[in-house]
Amino acid sequence: MANAPSSSSPVIRDVIAERVSRRSLLKGSLASSALIAGGSFVGSLFAGETHAAAAQSTLGFPELKRVYDKTHAAAEGYETTIVARWGDPLAAGLAEFDGNKVAADEQEKRFGYNCDYIAFMPLPKGTVNSDHGLLCVNNEYISPNVMFSGMTEDDAGKTMTKEQVDLGMAAMGHSIVEVQLKDGKWETVADGPLNRRITANTEMTVSGPAAGHALMMTSADATGTKVLGTSYNCSGGFTPWGTVLTCEEGVSDIFGGDPKKAPTAELLDRYGFDGSDIYGRGRFHDRFNLDKEPNEANRFDWVVEIDPYDPQSKPVKRTALGRMSHEASTVVLNKDGRVVVYMGDDDYFEYMYRFVSAKAYDKANPASGADLLDEGVLSVARFDADGSMTWLPLVHGQGKLTAENGFADQAEVLLKTRFAADALGATPMDRPEDIETNPVTGRVYAVMTKNKKRDQSKVNPANTRPENLWGHIVELIPPGGRGADADHTAEKYAWDLFVLCGNPRDAKVGATFHPDTSDNGWFVCPDNITFDPAGRLWVATDGANDFDLPDGVYGVDTEGAARGLPKLLFTCPHGAEATGPCFTPDGTTLFLSVQHPAEDAETLDKVQTLWPDFKDGQLPRPSVVAIRRKDGQPVGA
């Protein structure tokens, strides 16, 4: 991989040793003083690191005891409500859901499968109302082995019928549903006028530099500006002007055909296309067959902008944000009015990205946000051993991004984002997933879920462990000051390792949680994160099941004596991951997606849970859960 440092490098080896050794001693930092002043790095990377002997967490709840069974659990003093399940009606007149009988056309009117990213968009638009709003929820993929009787995950692509394939296409994408808080319980408005499904069959517009490019043209769309559908919608973001960004995270395995025979074989290979067609789409729909439509693949793996307040609006694929396995598109309104979007490319040895808009957003004129994401600079991150991080612009004509090197214009730079990042020597990371900004400190936290494929020769300062099965979280420190004063458009940041995950009782793992972390508090495989209004980090995990542990949600202080001290709030049922954590503006509700319950079963008849309804003869149902304190006070306080 490009820029993969050798383990023989004395600089990197020594820096890693110093960093890990120091963290083993200190187990975190107060980090009370800025590491950047006036754009220059000052002092030690570890300046101000310390811990109180017995830290007092600001998280006031009694920690949940970790239990892995057929249902979910929350800490004492908290209650949970199932808000929206797979198949719940989003239109009037639909019968009670029966997962054994649902048809594709009907699924287009019901809540989608495998819920992921959640955005709570208040109603009315423009308010900070916390008891009435829209839940905008990604529906990432389907689990055929627990949807269809007798089917295994491995044989689904070959055995699914056209009806099952079409059902799967209709169950993926995005769901918008109106919700209300009544008597302390969240409920959906089944016939809400803004309720909407966005699926693989929804027409979308392509905008930005890649719109109309030859590589975006197909037999169904000679203009290269109209796309049918979205899939693998994982994490996302929302904008100051009231739209939602949904991320397409790697559609390579839903295309059939032979990518090696395509004119763009090298590009398809760099994006992981192998013709596996795990849901059998290519058998029934030519656009998912690379032998027939090789350019259709280029029309996915983008960020899609949706206006949830206008059900007649057409979603837009914003190509200026680059093409990758998008995980997160977190929007920050910089102090100069420009919009910044942080993104991760969720695959082994891939990169972290940032987009900075060319124009500023006018808060007094929300319409100024329209098409703001079509013009700006996309950059990729390089982490250096001195604790600095540099954003490298992916701009055609600069450095190696020239026609001579395979980039004819800016459109090709974006269509070939991974190749462009390779060429600039970006730092290969351990599967970059969610990236979020602390609203109090202005610091940015980037999640690396894990990377079992990294060996000692590919260790680098920001990814310090070979065969990283546990994941870690990187802290980015923009210059300029605290909170709103942070300059998210700067070329250089400082950075640090916030936590290395895993069991701190096992010395071989090298975890660096706070020394007061309990046996229930440490976690592995961080995936999605969010912040509450007080600036506390909340981590949802994906992969704890591999360690015979439940995935769940943990609160973590990022400042003070308890910095890096996690506490377990919620655990998922068997086979499920926790994802998409999202707070209401007042912090009193934490919405969470419980994705793929019972998916670890080989076939439907072997599931260990029928969560959340536990009805004989029915199926497990991915769902959105609302977590609230019983006294109505903010979560975590």
Outline the fold blueprint.
Elements: H1 10-26, E1 36-37, E2 40-41, E3 73-74, E4 78-85, H2 104-107, E5 115-122, E6 132-139, H3 156-159, H4 162-171, E7 173-182, E8 185-188, E9 196-198, E10 203-207, E11 226-228, E12 233-238, E13 244-248, H5 265-270, H6 281-284, E14 303-306, E15 316-318, E16 326-333, E17 338-345, E18 352-360, E19 376-383, E20 388-393, H7 410-415, H8 417-424, E21 432-437, E22 444-448, E23 472-477, E24 492-500, E25 526-531, E26 537-541, E27 552-556, E28 566-571, E29 577-583, E30 589-595, E31 623-629
Parallel strand pairs: 10-15
Antiparallel strand pairs: 1-2, 3-28, 4-31, 5-6, 6-7, 7-8, 7-9, 10-11, 12-13, 13-14, 14-15, 16-17, 17-18, 18-19, 19-20, 20-24, 21-22, 22-23, 23-24, 25-26, 26-27, 27-28, 29-30, 30-31
Label this structure with key terms.
single chain; 637 residues; mainly beta; 8 helices; PhoX; PhoX family phosphatase; TAT_signal
Q: What do these coordinates show?
A:
58% of the residues are buried. A hairpin with a 4-residue loop joins β19 (376-383) and β20 (388-393). The model is unreliable at 1-13 and 20-53 (pLDDT under 50). Helices cover 9% and strands 28% of the residues. With 637 residues, it is mainly β. The radius of gyration is 23 Å and the shape is globular. The chain has helices at residues 10-26, 104-107, 156-159, 162-171, 265-270, 281-284, 410-415, 417-424, and strands spanning 36-37, 40-41, 73-74, 78-85, 115-122, 132-139, 173-182, 185-188, 196-198, 203-207, 226-228, 233-238, 244-248, 303-306, 316-318, 326-333, 338-345, 352-360, 376-383, 388-393, 432-437, 444-448, 472-477, 492-500, 526-531, 537-541, 552-556, 566-571, 577-583, 589-595, 623-629. It contains eight helices and 31 strands.
